[in-house]
Sequence to fold (143 residues):
Amino acid sequence: MTQSRNHATYNAHYHIVFPVKYRKALLDNHITKAIRDIATEISSRYDIEFDQIGCDINHIHLLVTFAPKYAGSDVVRIFKSITAKELFKRFPELRKELWGGEFWSDGFYFATVGERGNWNVVKNYIANQGKTMKEDPQLRLLT
Fold:
């Protein structure tokens, strides 16, 4: 969907993936819910829209739309820094698991997603993170 902000009209969607530090299996239901709540706060403060958030046990997938005033790395930095700070505040026991004071690993995956091509495939893939697939254990990005 095309969006307009101040001096820009855009229709750009991105699939972002990054792991928990040391690939620790920390993204349980409580942490995942907190991440979604924090993402809502980020969304209201920045021109960043989280279309879908999916967590597997040790990494997160985001389907994101954001204003062209941001670079992809800006959105990743904003999301990682705010969620990490809030998660450590809400769940102090995480500091025992992640002794270095960082919640997320440094790297990330970043790709554009087209609405006409693979939008629904990626959206469903992200929505099903962490869930067991009965029919096909491997949900394919490209059909």
The longest strand covers residues 48-55. Residues 133-143 have pLDDT under 50 and may be disordered.
